[in-house]
Design brief:
By secondary structure, the protein is α+β, with helices and mostly antiparallel strands. It is 25% helix and 34% strand. The protein is built from 7 helices and 8 strands. A hairpin with a 6-residue loop joins β4 and β5. α2 packs antiparallel against α3 and α6 runs antiparallel to α7.
Length: 277
């Protein structure tokens, strides 16, 4: 796996410099699969059942040629209808003290024979819209790359605060200094060890959204570049103080939708590697 943090959903797209070497990938996905309920912290920090969806993507080691040739499902591909059923069943059986990501991925992978035959990577993203105060959702994702055909997996977890919409005094023009304007922030945190389904770990991470929103709305920088570095320094300080959640990479993306009249937004994005003591 690359040691740079990338959003799992864009790992194999044409913007990836390694796209040419991955052009033979076959991918099976289920998007926006609704779960009955997931126990997670809400915006007040109370751990309660709440709505959630799963996005899951399975990268196949080899093309699904036999299934395509015979026009019939076989073990060269993944039956996405059965996959969805297994995921919903696995999520409903997870105890309230853990997230269902591990169970969901294990249900998606299936037997060791399936892993050894054709599954290269599984990426599962749990989306929790009611866990975000300022944004569209908070999501937790896990990627497992099966580095060989024995079923041994390299595991990586990410946490994302998506679409935080904040009112901020920022800009170099005189009119921008007269009042706050909307800024949209995405925060992606890569963890150097899997969360392991731990709600205790996530109880440390979830409050970061409110902390960042409160701190950002106090600022008055002229440039997004200065704002981005300031926010990174604040976030790094909080992450260093967390005993359970060990972060190693942070990505921040800032949008100013009102900055340019005939553009959707001006964007500044940074990615920083952490070496926490």
């Amino acid at each position: 796996m690359s040691d740079e943090l990338q959003e799992s959903s864009s790992r194999h797209q044409s913007a990836d410099p390694d796209f040419a070497t991955r052009a033979e990938n076959s991918i099976i996905s289920v998007q926006g699969l609704r779960l009955d309920a997931v126990t997670a912290p809400n915006i007040w920090g109370d751990v309660k059942p709440q709505p959630a969806t799963i996005n899951i993507k399975i990268y196949l080691r080899e093309a699904f040629k036999s299934a395509a040739t015979a026009d019939a499902l076989d073990n060269s591909t993944v039956h996405y209808g059965e996959l969805a059923k297994r995921i919903r069943k696995a999520s409903s059986q997870s105890p309230g003290s853990k997230y269902p990501l591990e169970d969901i991925i294990e249900s998606a992978v299936g037997t060791t024979e399936n892993i050894s035959f054709n599954i290269l990577e599984v990426v599962a993203e749990l989306v929790l819209p009611k866990s975000s105060t300022y944004g569209q959702a908070l999501s937790i994702s896990e990627s497992r790359v099966f580095v060989d055909k024995s079923g041994t997996a390299a595991v990586r977890d990410h946490v994302k605060f998506q679409g935080l919409r904040l009112m901020v005094l920022v800009g170099v023009n005189a009119y921008e200094r007269s009042g706050k304007q909307p800024v949209v922030l995405d925060v992606l945190i890569g963890l150097d060890s899997p969360i392991g389904g731990s709600i205790a770990t996530m109880e440390q991470i979830f409050p970061l959204e409110r902390f960042l929103a409160d701190e950002i709305e106090k600022t008055a920088f002229e440039t997004l570049e200065s704002l981005a570095e300031h926010v990174y320094a604040l976030l790094r300080g909080r992450l260093e103080a967390m005993p359970l959640a060990r972060a190693d990479v942070v990505q921040l993306r800032f949008e100013k939708p009102a900055a340019i009249a005939f553009a959707d937004a001006a964007v500044v994005q940074i990615r920083r590697r952490l070496t926490l003591g």
